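Structure in, sequence out. Go:
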């Protein structure tokens, strides 16, 4: 543990020690919750500015530049605007469902942060089944989306919510299965154990991250694709297809309730990115041994910022998929590939005892070949009812 890590841990213990004995346990919980919510809420505000500036640079325009230097106070202005805008509830709406929907979309995501280890000895709750807890809370987002569509009593809201739920459920299956390779390799459902399994360095230099194995690399790529769709990020942002379904399940929302949906979406993006970092990228560990002196939490948030930059770049680059393309990709490619990756990790584990010359290289070649061959085969499969030849474009007569 670095000196800065120890300072943060000792500071929390010192604050808790000042409380009466009966209040120390709830006080420790409150401090941890406040630190988690404050950190990621601040990151949400910063990400809105980073994304708008990044997209502006990609599209050759200025972006926010009026409020504060370089537009840095734009998130504050947006927050004040949402707080002061009128909250409109349709006359025929189910007021209880309409009001609770944005809360249900946000609250479980924030609770899921409790099991994410953001640094060495920096996890609010170390559950033995932390991965199951994370996905159980993440699955409640679909309930919030359905409540928003149903409670609005608007057919466009309902259709938008049903399409969003279909997308999230379809990609949640490969998302969950893609993480099972780590469970099989580590033998634990604890996220802390998964990070501990990636400590140490190959030849005293390169980290033992799971992404540096064939099953880990394949699992990470599949996880990243499924996480992008699960977070409604481009090119899978169909729930916000304004030209098709207006504003989807958020059609009848305004003011602060509307902002809560976006807060839940970004907080979910941070949470799923943090899970990917924990499972495949070593969590808070350094990539090289000579960089281990950097504070562990700084590595975690540095990797998280790289994820954010990737999603911003993806949004400014990729066009939106059609609904049939999105669903077909989930069931015809993603689901078979995550099942193939389970075979790859099983092969990797059973061949651990190979002793002949170059055994590690051969394990990489054979495991990676299994994954790449399956991906190539699924990509080349002809689609039933679709022409397999080159497209012919003709002018309308």
């Amino acid at each position: 543990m670095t000196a800065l890590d120890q300072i943060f841990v000792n500071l929390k213990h010192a604050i808790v020690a000042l409380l009466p004995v009966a209040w120390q346990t709830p006080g420790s919980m409150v401090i941890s919750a406040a630190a988690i919510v404050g950190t990621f809420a601040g990151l949400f505000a910063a990400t809105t500015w980073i994304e708008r500036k990044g997209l502006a640079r990609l599209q050759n325009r200025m972006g926010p530049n009026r409020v504060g230097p370089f537009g840095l106070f734009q998130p504050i202005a947006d927050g004040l605007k949402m707080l002061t805008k009128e909250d409109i509830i349709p006359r025929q709406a189910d007021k209880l469902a309409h009001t609770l929907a944005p809360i249900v979309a946000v609250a479980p995501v924030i609770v899921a942060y409790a099991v994410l280890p953001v640094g060495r000895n920096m996890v609010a709750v170390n559950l033995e089944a932390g991965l199951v807890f994370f996905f159980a809370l993440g699955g409640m987002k679909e309930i919030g989306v359905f409540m928003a569509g149903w409670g609005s009593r608007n057919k466009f809201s309902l259709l938008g919510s049903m399409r969003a739920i279909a997308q999230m459920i379809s990609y949640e299956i490969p998302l969950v299965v893609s993480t099972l390779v780590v469970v099989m390799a580590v033998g634990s459902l604890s996220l802390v154990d998964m990070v501990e399994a990636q400590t140490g360095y190959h030849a005293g230099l390169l980290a033992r991250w799971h992404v540096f194995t064939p099953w880990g690399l394949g699992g990470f790529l599949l996880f990243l694709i499924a996480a992008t769709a699960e977070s409604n990020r481009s090119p899978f942002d169909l729930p916000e297809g304004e030209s098709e379904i207006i504003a989807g399940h958020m059609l009848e929302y305004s003011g602060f309730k509307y902002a809560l949906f976006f807060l839940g979406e970004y907080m979910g993006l941070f949470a799923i990115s943090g899970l990917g970092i924990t499972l495949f990228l070593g969590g808070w560990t350094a990539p090289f041994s000579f960089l281990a002196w950097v504070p562990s939490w700084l590595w975690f948030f540095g990797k998280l910022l790289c994820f954010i930059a990737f999603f911003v770049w993806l949004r400014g680059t990729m066009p939106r998929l059609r609904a049939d393309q999105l669903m077909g990709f989930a069931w015809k490619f993603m689901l078979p590939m995550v099942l193939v990756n389970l075979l790859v990790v099983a092969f990797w584990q059973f061949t651990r005892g190979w002793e002949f010359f170059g055994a590690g290289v051969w394990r990489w070649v054979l495991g990676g070949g299994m994954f790449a061959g399956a991906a190539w085969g699924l990509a080349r499969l002809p689609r039933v009812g679709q022409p397999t030849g080159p497209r012919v474009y003709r002018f309308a007569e």
